[in-house]
Amino acid sequence: MPEREGRSGVGAGDGESGSAASRFAARVSARRGAGSGSGPGGEPLTLAQRTRSGPGSVLIAVYGIFALAATARSALQITTKFSHAPLAYSLSAFAAVVYVVATVMLVRGDGASRRVAFASCAVELVGVLVIGALSVLEPSWFPEATVWSDFGGGYGYVPLVLPVLGLLWLRRTRRG
């Protein structure tokens, strides 16, 4: 490939980005920087960017899926057969609210939102542990399962693991 006059071919000179290989290398470098707490050009990521980057984006996606699933499930249960298991269906609706709040606050990612997300994850963890234990010790209280019954066993124990991962991620990304 012939070089342009007055250039070495790798991003030299007038500020152009150079060859395709050097542009690719710059993009890879910028992405690596994002994972280590710095954005393109080396500037530090904001608190919200740190919260949403890397594993945080997966965490937000899983919370979003659970928010939709729990909301749809509880809405259907409450509108069609609430009298059958009011406690279980009310707890499912409460879990849906917790998942929605956690999702929105993780997406926002600023200081106040992170505190609310942390509280949401903590409430979720306590809920999974308490409701999980009660559903095992007193199954008659739960004629129908909730998202948190049997420690989230009906959902592959994701409801038990998710708040722990959320709390750990918020802790890990709190500083620059």
From TrEMBL:
Residues 1-50 are annotated as: Disordered. It comes from the Bacteria. The keyword Signal does not apply. Residues 17-33 have a biased composition (Low complexity). Coiled coil: none annotated. The chain crosses the membrane at residues 58-76, 88-107, 116-134, 154-170. Keywords: Membrane, Transmembrane, Transmembrane helix. The keyword Metal-binding does not apply. This is Integral membrane protein. It comes from Actinosynnema mirum (strain ATCC 29888 / DSM 43827 / JCM 3225 / NBRC 14064 / NCIMB 13271 / NRRL B-12336 / IMRU 3971 / 101).
